[in-house]
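hiii so um. not sure if this is the right channel but i have a protein structure encoded as tokens and i wanna go backwards to a sequence. like what aa goes where. can anyone help
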């Protein structure tokens, strides 16, 4: 047993009433699609993408990324068509290809058996999340799915977390956020939520600080123990 899993077992005993899950990089092994959707779009157009295109586009908005492809690769389609093409790759991934991270399904089942309320707070659009959850058969685990676009604020603002506990009716101090994104963890910690930092390679550069601020840090979801 790792040091982190021992810490989890010692920390959460009897202290979990509700859990808020991020999705991408936590429940689903899906961060890669946001890295390679542009690459996949180009390949379908018969264009060979440059190495590390995903790294170049990762911090861009959809519009910025589409314009980059038009300028760099002389794509002749209008920007709105390129945006739709990129999003079609994202949609296909969530509806057809998305897989759960190792240990995620088992964790959901353990939490359900223990009577822990569960919800989702995600930056990804609802239809993508519901498409993935439907084909994976995990919709029924959650009291509510909340998205930043519907709440109207990013996870740099705590409103999405407050809405989750309002639905679950769980005290903030006994509600845990499972998250791989540092900025979201900081938001939750400021408001008194407990935080489980979940390792995902996309957030590699933030791992030292994630380890520092998380109440529990996991490289494997199966290491989270309730008792």
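sure thing!! here u go:
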């Amino acid at each position: 047993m790792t040091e982190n899993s021992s810490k989890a077992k010692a920390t959460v005993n009897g202290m979990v009433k509700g859990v808020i899950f991020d999705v991408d990089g936590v429940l689903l092994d899906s961060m890669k699609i946001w890295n390679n959707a542009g690459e996949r779009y180009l390949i379908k157009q018969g264009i060979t993408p440059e190495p590390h295109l995903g790294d170049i586009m990762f911090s861009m908005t959809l519009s910025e990324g589409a314009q980059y492809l038009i300028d760099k690769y002389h794509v002749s389609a209008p920007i709105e068509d390129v945006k739709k093409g990129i999003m079609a790759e994202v949609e296909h991934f969530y509806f057809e290809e998305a897989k759960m991270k190792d240990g995620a399904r088992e964790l959901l089942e353990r939490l359900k058996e223990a009577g822990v309320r569960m919800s989702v707070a995600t930056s990804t659009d609802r239809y993508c999340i519901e498409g993935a959850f439907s084909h994976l058969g995990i919709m029924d685990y959650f009291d509510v799915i909340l998205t930043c676009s519907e709440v109207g604020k990013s996870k740099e603002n705590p409103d999405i977390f407050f809405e989750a506990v309002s639905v679950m009716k769980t005290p903030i101090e006994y509600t845990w956020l499972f998250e791989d994104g540092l900025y979201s963890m900081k938001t939750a910690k400021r408001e008194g939520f407990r935080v489980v930092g979940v390792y995902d390679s996309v957030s590699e550069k933030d791992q030292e600080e994630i380890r520092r601020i998380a109440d529990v840090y996991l490289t494997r979801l199966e290491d989270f123990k309730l008792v």
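oh and DSSP finds eleven helices and six strands in the chain.
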